[in-house]
Amino acid sequence: MVLLGLVGVIVAIVLVIVRPGASQGEEPSAASTTPATERATVETGTPTPTATPTPTAPPSEPAAADGDPCSPEQVTVEAITDKSIYEAGEQPQLSVTITNTGTNVCVLNAGTKVQAFTITSGSEVYWRSTDCQVDPVDAEVSLAPGTPISSTVPIVWDRTRSGVDTCGGPREAVPAGGASYHLSVSVDGFESESSKQFLVY
User: Which CATH number do you get for residue 84?
Assistant: First the structure.
């Protein structure tokens, strides 16, 4: 009996060590070695590019026609004096030349009602033709391309200061002795691009 009990103990130990059903050197299954956090690969399709709309060209402006009002870009106004140097007692004669630099005949008002002659020296205004203007009139003219028109009768400056309150009496003479003055002109809102310089003795 003692011998049978000893044999039973030995068999039990052998079964624990060997583990029936398990092969020696068996590798764990692939499923057991795959991390639980492994992400599945997702195939993504290539996005279809969105078509860019073709920009629409802005409508072109109609070409200017003969008889249209003059536009600022086609009119040049030039201030004119009959001399550059005036000796003592000589009075400057002021006029204006208007030129159509465009390609069509245009129309503007060139009357004395819309003319303004201004004489300055430095930053000071000495005289304006509009201060004491008498009987101004409108005069619509057609400007042909490249054909300048000028004042028919110049304005004479008596070398005095002007002001709206000086039209009825004597006015103060301006400095002379070689003083430098500048004439600027506007016609119907079109300004001379530069002033005309002259000297008064």
Answer: 2.60.40.2360
